[in-house]
From TrEMBL:
Similarity field: Belongs to the NMT1/THI5 family.
Pfam families named in the record: NMT1 (PF09084)
Assembly notes: Homodimer.
Catalytic reaction annotation: N(6)-(pyridoxal phosphate)-L-lysyl-[4-amino-5-hydroxymethyl-2-methylpyrimidine phosphate synthase] + L-histidyl-[4-amino-5-hydroxymethyl-2-methylpyrimidine phosphate synthase] + 2 Fe(3+) + 4 H2O = L-lysyl-[4-amino-5-hydroxymethyl-2-methylpyrimidine phosphate synthase] + (2S)-2-amino-5-hydroxy-4-oxopentanoyl-[4-amino-5-hydroxymethyl-2-methylpyrimidine phosphate synthase] + 4-amino-2-methyl-5-(phosphooxymethyl)pyrimidine + 3-oxopropanoate + 2 Fe(2+) + 2 H(+)
Gene3D superfamilies the UniProt entry points to: Periplasmic binding protein-like II
Keywords in alphabetical order: Iron, Metal-binding, Pyridoxal phosphate, Thiamine biosynthesis, Transferase
InterPro entries named among the record's database cross-references: NMT1/THI5, SsuA/THI5
SUPFAM superfamilies named in the record: Periplasmic binding protein-like II
Domain spans labelled SsuA/THI5-like: 58-263
Pathway info: Cofactor biosynthesis; thiamine diphosphate biosynthesis
Official protein name in the record: Thiamine pyrimidine synthase
Amino acid sequence: MDRRSFLRATGLVAVTSASGTFLMGCAPSTGNNSADQSSAGPNATDAVFVTPFQHILNYADIYVGIQEGYFAEEGLRIDVVGGSGTAASISQVAAGQGLFGKAASVITCPLIADGNAQIITVGQGDHKSQYSLASDPANPLTTPEEWQGKTIGVISKGGTTELLLDAMSVAQGLDPTKVRKVVTGADVGSLEFLNRGEVDGFITYLGSEAAFKQRGIELNYLNTDEFAKMPGDSYLVKTEDVGPQAEAITGFLRASRKGYEFVEDPANLDKVISAMAAYNKVEVQDEELAKLKIEAQPVICKPASGGYLSIDMDAWESGVELMRKSGIMKDKNRPVSDFVTSEFVDAI
């Protein structure tokens, strides 16, 4: 996939000016800043976090960190802005309109290597893929060979899920163009495509899996990590902010880690729901479903070793190589240190 195609697929536009090439996307919607952050003090540093997609439980560590005063303890006053997609999160940070963003390596690495995006990952949020290939338990898809020549549903055309699906095929030496991809979306309605026989399987994510579980719907899930392990959604900053904003970055990650640890404790369920409700009441209106989503967070985000947000450098190394092998990234020479750094997490 060439640079222009990748930018178009992710919704970013490359704009060239006298100062160089930068990335622009749709402006995000303004977040609800109703949580009390007055304890941060008058000299607190204001910092904007642009989410990849609106306000959902995937970012509960941040909402909890605000509610419980973790960011205030670090001298930070956080404004959470709901993005309209991963492109918005990246582009706003690249344009200096947000200090922190969040995106998966399959998106950030090609944009850095092939698109000259001046961003770098500073904390790894997801240590297991949020995405799985769902199929009928009576006719499960368990290896990429089994969906060659078949039709698979993806959440969006040209987005993360299609890239991961293609990478799974490439990792097994198979041609991803032999798989027909159609858009089935990200909600529980995607199941209807399977029920009608329009697809042989479809990509699902953490939230929809929780909804299927709540409804007692049995599906066979094959996590994309099984064949295409790549670091998932991770916190990123603008490269030029690494030095001047070092204290704020370390403080942000320290507060976020405390947020993750808070979310993990079942005794804090009501408070997690309260923190989320300050930004999106609809997300936690169904408390049973919200509980399932919250319980799934540690499964995705907790590293096998080390604390939350630790960088799995082996996963980054192998992920970058797979992106190159599958054509997601054209660059063959950039070191992994251009994409991710562990210096701030190590300083927590």
